[in-house]
Amino acid sequence: MSIDIITANELVVQSDGYLVSEMNGEKIMLSIENGKYYNLGQLGGRVWELMASPVSVKDMVKQLVTEYEIEPGACEQQVHTYLQQLKSEGLIQVRKE
Prior knowledge:
Structural class: alpha+beta
Strand order of the largest sheet: 5-1-6
Protein name: Lipopolysaccharide export system protein LptA
InterPro entries: PQQD (IPR008792), PqqD_sf (IPR041881)
Pfam family, one: PqqD
Radius of gyration: 13 Å
Strand content: 25-35%
Number of strands: 6
Low-confidence stretches: none
Mean pLDDT: 91
Number of helices: 3
Shape: globular
């Protein structure tokens, strides 16, 4: 089974079918389809917000670097790892730019 790695130029966007709520500053999400809950956390919740409409991974990283005290390389690595997890759960769509 091959894993398609999300590249910096690809667009990511939220998949449909999820209810999202905020609780104690963190985003909590419920999948209507499978009934699973996901705690996106604070930073994960911000990533989720940025994907309300299609956004390139590189633009998302640039935005997060301006909002949080994080090195661009570390941010990019963490965002890629997180997006791969979301993709594997079917929570996001990945499109070519």
